[in-house]
Design a protein that fits this description.
26% strand; elongated
Length: 378
């Protein structure tokens, strides 16, 4: 089965991850990317591997998928480092979720109870105990939850490593090559049309993130219900006195945006992220930047002095129920791997391994069965 010919639409971490695993298994794989590989949502992400920090907002099945993917990460990091010859900045310092006011305490308690109910490894801390772990925290932090097993990777390093590993295994990458049409005949996907003509293929994988519903040729009935959700972010340069080690998240009952601060090994501090339904608009706004900076400053007052290195906005691919769309479709040989919303980096290993197994064996595992498109078609 290894000699299959596979076309993947979209060269973010999901497309590159699937492509790498398939090429490694001996398939001949071509990725078509509308822009530059990995420069959309994959590039804009913060790289948090945090199924527990968001556990209360998610369905049990999605939490299970996230936890299973997190457990694959050590293997994934090692395999990717071997094939790409580079590190992806995998860090295991854990996450602190902090609250500053009485209103926040209620929200934090609610989250803590939900996490305990799910049997997650979390600890309730006083403000003083939180500052022992992270001395840069504000004296106004009154309580915190410590998630010891929420980790992070540097998503931009992961993009570079996946591209390198994919091409080292013989995968072909066409950048600046949008798909004009998925070609379907008699209910079977037979290839893709680009500006360079028609390319016949055994399997088409749609992993185009928030652009997945924009591609021609799909029948309306199976259009993936994926929309762009804008996130504005910025990067600061950490300096002496503000050397943060753990990921810090705020819970703010009274503000529209809770923020997270993600320290990188190169001294950058990522601050994110707004969540806005603004279509494909990626402009930065005063309000968005203000919310992020205010949230960061309230949790860690020392950021006031830090230089701003970069600002950007990305578009997360949100599905109708904010869970990914994975696996077979009513069109034969057309596979979906899209709609990962806020969890694309976290879910990359399990998506890559599972979709590869599905394509090579034809079998849908129990792991991804709940996430098939058919849940929207019933």
């Amino acid at each position: 089965m290894g000699n299959k010919n596979i076309s993947i639409i979209g060269g973010g971490v999901i497309g590159l991850g699937i492509g790498w695993q398939l090429a490694k298994a001996g398939a001949s794989v071509t990725i078509y990317e509308r822009d530059r590989a990995g420069r959309a949502a994959s590039w804009a992400a913060a790289g948090m591997l945090a199924p527990f920090a968001e556990a209360h907002t998610e369905e049990q099945e999605l939490l299970n998928l996230g936890c299973e993917s997190l457990s694959l990460y050590p293997q994934w990091v090692e395999e990717l480092a071997t094939d790409a010859g580079m590190s992806i900045g995998y860090r295991v310092e854990g996450t602190l979720i902090v609250g500053l006011e009485a209103d926040d305490t209620d929200q934090l308690r609610h989250l803590y109870e939900a996490q305990q109910h799910l049997g997650l490894e979390v600890h309730w801390l006083s403000g003083r105990e939180a500052r022992e772990i992270e001395p840069a925290l504000s004296p106004r932090v009154t309580m915190a939850i410590h998630c010891a097993t929420d980790y992070q990777v540097d998503n931009r390093l992961m993009v570079a490593a996946l591209q390198r590993a994919y091409q080292a295994c013989g995968g072909v990458l066409h950048e600046n090559c949008p798909i004009q049409k998925i070609v379907i005949e008699n209910g079977v996907a037979i290839g893709v049309q680009t500006q360079n003509g028609f390319h016949e293929t055994d399997v088409v994988v749609l992993s185009a993130g928030c652009w997945s519903a924009q591609i021609d040729g799909l029948p309306d009935a199976i259009m993936p219900p994926v929309r762009p959700v804008k996130g504005q972010m910025l990067a600061l340069q950490m300096e002496e006195g503000i050397d943060i080690k753990a990921v810090i998240r705020t819970v703010r009952a009274r503000y529209p945006t809770s923020v997270y601060l993600v320290p990188r090994s190169d001294g950058r501090l990522i601050v994110g992220a707004t969540s806005e339904e603004m279509g494909f608009d990626t402009r930065l706004t005063v309000g968005g930047m203000f919310e992020l900076l205010r949230g960061a400053w309230e949790a860690v007052p020392g950021v006031y002095e830090l230089p701003v290195l970069e600002t950007w906005a990305g578009l997360r691919p949100g599905s109708r129920d904010n869970a990914p769309i994975l696996g077979k479709t009513p069109i034969e040989n057309l596979i979906y791997a899209t709609g990962h919303y806020r969890n694309g980096i976290l879910l990359t290993p399990i998506t890559a391994y599972e979709i590869t197994t599905l394509i090579l064996s034809g079998e849908t595992s129990e792991t991804i069965a709940p996430f098939q498109l058919d849940r929207f078609l019933r």
